[in-house]
Specification:
Number of strands: 9
Strand content: 5-15%
Largest sheet: 7 strands, antiparallel
Structural class: alpha+beta
Distance between the termini: 91 Å
Number of helices: 13
Mean pLDDT: 84
Radius of gyration: 39 Å
Amino acid sequence: MSGRSSVAGILVLLLPACSMTGFEDAYRIDDARVEELLADAPWPDRVSRRENPAAPPGEPVTAGALRLDVVDSVNLALKNNRDLLRVLEGRFLSEIDAELALHRYWPLLQPLTITSSYHEASGGVPARTDAAGIGVSQRLPFGGAVTLSGAAAASAGGGADAVALSPSLRVSLPLWRSAGAIVANSAEIASLRSAVYAGRELDHFRQVLAIDIARRHYSLIQAKKAIRNLEINLENARKLRNQSEAMFRFGRVTKTDLFRAEFQVARAENDLLNAVENRKLLEDVFKIQLALPPGTDVDLIAADVEPPPETVEDAGYDEIVRAHNLLWKNTLDRYEDEKRALHAAADARNPRLDVTAEASAAATSDDILRGYRGDPAVWSAGIALEVPLDRMPLDRDYQAAVLRFLQAERSFVQSRDELARQARERVISVKQGIFNVRLQQRSVDEAEKALKVLTYEYRQGKVANRDVIEAQNKLIEAQNQLLRSLVDALIARLEMRQFAGQLQIDAEGKWLKP
């Protein structure tokens, strides 16, 4: 009774621990434990860059202003961009799965098992049994496995002591269902292919990110130039207002012209203010892409965007895209994956026919003392046939696999057509970029000439100040549009090269050159 009372007392003491109240604090993992877990990781060299969650949000972590040209911006993003790190870690996870898949083809040690038990019955003699087992298995290329295992057991008590050893060798081989290299290795093939896909997607993401950062950097530079144009426009508007006031005193212009000149000053001030604030917002987004707090002071080094070349080389571009586009390579390989999945679904409907052969030996303590006198070995061989009688689930799975393959087939054809369309779109975008730069340059030249003529005629009293104001607005619009066209033309050329798999990012920024 005392033993039962002790057990009951222990259970009563453990019951409060089962309560889930206050779990927010009771099950919290402190930061010190997290540091220990990360330090004990088997591959610390692959741990990505860490950040300090306890740091106040939005505060800069660097001292002084960061001076960045476009190459520095891209290289900083390729090191710190959080989305890129997520894709990089996904590639690492795929590589881990692939390494594990390859590891399964090596001889695998089975777990070492050690058990010890104690037996006692009322009025009986106490007995103790200890046992241990271990084994190693090797997969076969076309299915099945070879397993070598051994077990040892020792017992004491009950009036007799005994030791037994039992090594065995077992070979199993499927002949029908699950037989063949494609089906037997389907899981490993999927893991290896996933690692390849993840590597291509990482390269694609790096290229797209580099182009996006270059676009943002150049856009901020051009926005700064556009602000300078708006400042000049404000100065011209104020000069025009002053001229209008002077001419109004002498009766050379009407009150309406004076109001119009004052309104133009207010409009120019508003446009300048909006441009300055919008650039700040764009700069904050740019800093976050570089994993910099919005409060960080960044000085972007200006770099003139070179005019695009006169022509674009598009001969054979479709063939280059089909041969080197990274995502298209993934599409081709995934289509082959669907074929293997269809084959595996059909194989699952077959009966299972396995052949096994096993050789084992059993030696007691007496046999060991006699030096294995006699022949304790046991040989066995067998064949097992399993025929599924309920065919409906297998048939439905096969039908579902057929439908998935047909969907994949249509998706493949659509992706092929979409690839050709996007390749044509890239070429057209580059040609449009070249044309737009030329057009905007002519617009700037014409707007400058028109402003000079109208300013002179206004001073002569031949035209109203409305014409001068409109000419100033057209010049500012043409100048800003030219800046945007230069950036768009550069990005279009980069995207054309990236889509064809010909954009190799380097630390020196040579990839930015046409």
